[in-house]
Amino acid sequence: MRVFELIALLCVLMGVGMAQTKTETPAEKEKPTAQARETTLVFAQEGERWWWAEDAEGNPLNPPRKTSDTTLVIKRPEGAEVIWVYDAKTGNLARLRAAELKDKTEFTSDRWTHVARVQVNLVAQGKPVASALVSLTDADGKTHTRVLEPSAEGILIFERVPLGKLTITTQYGDEQKASQETTLKAERELRVPVIEFALSGAVATLEPKAAAGEAAAREEASPASRIGAVVMFVVAAALAVGVIYFLVRLATQKPQQLGAAMTKLGVELPEAATGSTSPPTASATVAAPHQPELPPLESAGIPPTAAPTAGVSAGPATRLVAIQGPHSGQVFELAGELLTIGREATHPIALTADMGVSRRHAQITRQGNQTLIEDLGSTNGTYVNGVRISGPTPIKPGDAIQMGATVLRVE
Known about the structure:
The chain is α+β, with helices and mostly antiparallel strands and about 400 residues long. The protein has helices spanning about 1-25, 25-30, 210-255, 255-265; strands at about 40, 50-55, 65, 70-75, 80-85, 90-95, 105, 110-125, 125-130, 130-135, 145-150, 155-160, 165-170, 175-185, 195-200, 320-325, 330-335, 340, 350, 360-365, 370-375, 380-385, 385-390, 395, 400-405, 405-410.
């Protein structure tokens, strides 16, 4: 009897072992579960776009890569969960889940779901707000909170904000609170939308550094301008007196030579009366030469637009030369298709010494032979030939660009 029991137990153990072996076969262990690691996005038209991949925790896995073609081949890095695509013209973002991408995906307009950057300007009585706690609740119901500190000069930047309705809530002063609603659209004038948020009540503000600098410059320049005008008037008057004295003396001592000289210039002098030998007296009327007009004064710190000099090339812009302001004499080469300008040292064109320039002030893009400059929602604006720009504006050699107290000549 025990022999049969041992045989039965042995059979049971062998059956269990075969079942375990079946569930752990190498073929099933090596069964592929990952999606295809390469996909192709097809766009409706050409344009400058950038893409990068992130893992499940939002950590980037590769530096942004650029394309301008209608097709974009993406080789996803290991562990990629999300693919971001950025449109340089509109400033919009597309968030694509890597697991949902096919070998070939048609990229339609509804895939643009986010704005890359949104700028919020907090002001009170026309001045930047010094400090506040700002919360932005996006269309997905997610709240992003930022602290506004004095060095930000009243400007906050929110990144990757979904399109649609959003609410901004600001806490400031002694437990004061204000809210404002707006809607982000895929089609808009500014690539970086700017939301102006005006606060009321008791709130700490900052004096605009650029405005203070311009006022001080005007105060210093005003006496100097008056003194310069007086000096020029005295010099012009002295020259006029000298010319009149010279003509009178020449007419008195050498009337024939004066007549010949004036005849060559096309001026006919009246002939003296017959038989009169008396020379013209000093009381004779002599026309004084036209005095040169004084140069016009600069208005609002912006120099008058000057025509390109003979040494400036008529081809595409290749560099910027600072001709006024704290960076005067510095040269910035336009190497690359996208160059940002700002007060931070990380920008290709860094104007770190000009406090009137925002941290992210403007950017320059190059498209073939055309060079464009665009303001990125700066506090004090960007001027081309004295005109404040509101969108991408072409620039060419000889143009003058002003940001803060810095004036740059395009060459």
